[in-house]
Specification:
By secondary structure, the chain is α/β, with parallel strands linked by helices. The strands form five sheets. Strands 15-16-17-14-13-18-19 form a seven-stranded mixed beta sheet, with helices on both faces. A six-stranded mixed beta sheet has the order 10-9-8-11-12-20, sandwiched between helices. The radius of gyration is 23 Å and the shape is globular. Helix content is 38%, strand content 21%. It has 14 helices and 21 strands. It folds into two domains: 4-252 and 457-475, Aldehyde Dehydrogenase, Chain A, domain 1 (3-Layer(aba) Sandwich), CATH 3.40.605; 256-445, Aldehyde Dehydrogenase, Chain A, domain 2 (3-Layer(aba) Sandwich). The N and C termini lie far apart (73 Å). It has helices spanning 42-61, 64-80, 82-93, 97-117, 156-168, 181-193, 209-218, 231-241, 266-278, 298-310, 330-345, 398-406, 421-430, 463-468; strands spanning 4-5, 8-10, 13-15, 22-26, 33-38, 124-126, 134-141, 144-148, 172-175, 201-203, 222-228, 247-251, 256-260, 288-294, 349-352, 369-372, 389-395, 413-417, 435-438, 457-458, 471-478. The protein binds succinic acid. Succinic acid binds next to loops.
Length: 484
């Protein structure tokens, strides 16, 4: 592919960066430069916020029907362009093309959902304590918003924020990951074609994420920020948000336990474990990172799971049929290696070592790996690996495994497999996580609340919960009401 030149999308215009700087976008499967993008700086992000602030009162006054129509058109256009968008996504992020198609459909589903939800922003009339009064509660858009989005879902993590923001009547400035800016700019193109008023959406990628983030956080006009990324950066944003008292949604790191009881449907558990672990090569915040399997079924579970994961072909995600692509960059590979080496030094055993990386040595590949005999002293059981490594420990008692699962500062997703209904409800109550998949390894969907507890974040995205994050509750007390 010849490298393509992109532009920033600010205030309805396609612009170069004020600094004149550019950066390269690299295909993680081949290490080739596939595109060049203007390197936005603080002046560019301020311009985007100026435009958003100018249009905000106008956009807030549009009817829900008008906003819904734009979101609906954008969702349909995304689906019409699914193939092209998926190819771009795979080129810049690496995930297999079939998964990229799935992500585009997932991304469009947020726009479609919020096209409907825009029409259901209701208020309340509350009985007053005085006969001459009325208590009215209305919901109003919070104002200008910003999204800081990650590379692992270059489309869906934008639409999961943009859908509810636009539906609620908020303008949004998007700062996508510098590793995957192309899909983000293609989404901007779709909204431009759907005649979203200029300035309501800007997409401003740049290399200096810290400076861009700081500029967003310092600007009083930005009333809400939604961030998906690391817990470290989430904590920094939370500190920065306090100066201007911004609302925040933070979807941060996970370290998901995947618990398989002896009474589980084993075939289902193996299949869902493979899907959960290998989705996006393990580079998702909800990827299972710690497997706890009942001692009585551990050997057979590990054997079946190793066969299932071992049957997945690894290669350039752009080739049809490939099921495991590269990781995002060299640092990601180094982190996975570090986790595996640490586990092996401390006594873990290898059940699957996977295929060798690409023959020409290019690309950021790490072979799918299954480890057994792991324990809590190993890095892999303490922090998110973000890679295709399955680490399996064993347990005997329910209370013991619940304690191990909760023994972490993270609380995004947890999974458990059992046929025992009473146990299912005990686990749903006692696991300290925002999302629990019971006999389900892939619970994410547009209409359900996505988000974590503890250091995995605050706020929820998706469903009726997601739009609340972009709405202020306003109480109007009306006195002097006649004829009561
Ligand atoms: C994420 O990894 O942050 C999102 C995963 C999902 O939406 O399922």
């Amino acid at each position: 592919m010849n490298e393509r030149l992109y532009r920033l999308y600010i205030g309805g215009q396609w612009l170069e960066a004020k600094s004149g700087r550019w950066f390269d976008v690299v295909n993680p499967a081949t290490e080739e430069v596939i595109a060049r993008v203007p390197d936005a700086g603080v002046a560019d992000i301020r311009l985007a916020i100026d435009d958003a602030a100018r249009i905000q009162p106008v956009w807030a006054q549009t009817t829900a029907g008008a906003r819904s129509a734009i979101l609906g058109r954008a969702a349909r256009l995304m689906i019409e362009r699914k193939e092209d968008l998926a190819r771009i996504l795979t080129l810049e992020e690496g995930k297999p093309i079939a998964e990229a198609r799935g992500e585009i459909a997932y991304a469009a589903s947020f726009l479609e959902w919020y096209a409907e939800e825009a029409k259901r922003v209701y208020g309340d009339l509350i009985p007053a304590s005085h006969p001459g009064k009325r208590i009215m509660v209305v919901r109003r858009p919070v104002g200008v918003t910003a999204a800081i989005t990650p590379w692992n879902f270059p489309a869906a993590m934008i639409t999961r924020k943009l859908g509810p923001a636009l539906a609620a009547g908020c303008a949004m400035v998007v700062k996508p990951s510098e590793l995957t800016p192309l899909t983000a700019l293609e989404i901007a193109r779709i909204f431009a074609e759907c005649e979203l008023p200029e300035g309501v959406l800007s997409v401003v990628p740049g290399m200096d994420a810290a400076a861009l983030g700081k500029a967003i956080m310092e600007d009083f006009r930005v009333r809400k920020v939604s961030f998906t990324g690391s817990t470290r950066v989430g904590k920094l944003l939370m500190r920065q948000a306090s100066d201007t008292m911004k609302r925040l949604s933070l979807e941060l790191g996970g370290h998901a336990p995947f618990i398989v009881f002896a009474d589980a449907d084993l075939e289902l558990a193996v299949e869902q474990a493979a899907l959960c672990k290998m989705r996006g090569m393990g580079e998702t915040c909800v990827s299972a990172n710690r497997f706890y399997v009942h001692r009585d079924i551990a050997d057979v579970f590990v054997q079946k799971l190793s066969e299932r994961i071992g049957s997945m072909g690894m290669g350039d995600g752009a080739s049809e049929g490939v099921q495991v692509g590269p990781l995002i960059n060299r640092d990601a590979v180094a982190k996975v290696k570090r986790h595996v080496e640490d586990a092996l030094e401390k006594g873990a055993r290898v059940s699957l070592a996977g295929d060798a990386p690409a023959a020409d040595g290019k690309g950021y590949f790490y072979p799918p790996t299954v480890l057994t005999n792991v324990d809590a002293s190993m890095l892999i059981m303490q922090e998110e690996t973000f890679g295709p490594v399955t680490a399996v420990a064993t347990f005997t008692e329910e209370s013991e495994v619940i304690a191990m699962a909760n023994e972490t500062p993270y609380g995004l997703a947890a999974y458990c497999f059992t046929r025992d209904m009473a146990r299912l409800f005990r686990l749903a109550d006692q696991l300290e996580y925002g999302i629990i998949g019971v006999n389900d390894g892939v619970p994410s969907t547009a209409q359900a609340p996505f988000g974590g507890v503890k250091e995995s974040g605050v706020g929820r995205e998706g469903g009726k919960y997601g739009i609340e994050e972009y709405l202020d509750v306003k109480y109007v007390s009306v006195g002097g009401v006649a004829n009561v």
